[in-house]
UniProtKB/TrEMBL annotation:
UniProt protein name: DUF7865 domain-containing protein
Keyword Membrane set for record: yes
Keywords per UniProt: Membrane, Transmembrane, Transmembrane helix
Keyword Zinc attributed: no
InterPro entries: DUF7865
Domain (DUF7865) ranges: 2-118
Source organism of this protein record: Populus alba x Populus x berolinensis
Length: 119
């Protein structure tokens, strides 16, 4: 059993729960910080219905991330070394796939936002 496993899990759970809480309550500020003011305005929607739909989607995504953080926090207290190895391999694979997907998705959003600005 590795003593680093609980530390890494608790660190990841804190990051996930903090990010989830920010996504639920401060998404406009995150959009502004990551994409700039003009793109953030576009990403938040143009009609009240679009804005409500986007805010609801962001809130549910944040809630899911918060729940995943809570689950990882609970997993950090499991003492079985075989389970820790299995869980660590799965998390590593998940991180790689999410990074690839996120980079690809963000690139497409940026291209779409610049196309909207030119129109």
């Amino acid at each position: 059993m590795s003593s680093a496993f609980p530390v890494i899990c608790i660190l990841h759970s804190l990051i996930a729960m903090t990010s989830g809480a920010l996504m639920m309550f401060r998404m406009k500020e995150i959009y502004t910080f990551t994409h700039g003011n003009e793109t953030a305005t576009i990403l938040m929607g143009s009609t009240p219905q679009d804005q409500l739909l986007i805010r609801t989607s962001d809130s549910f995504s944040g809630l899911l991330l918060f729940a995943i953080g809570w689950l990882i926090f609970m997993v950090s207290f499991i003492k079985d070394g075989e389970f820790q190895y299995f869980f660590a391999k799965g998390c590593t694979l998940l991180h790689v796939f999410m990074a690839i997907w996120r980079v690809n998705f963000e690139r497409r959003v940026e291209v779409l936002a610049w196309d909207w600005l030119r129109a």
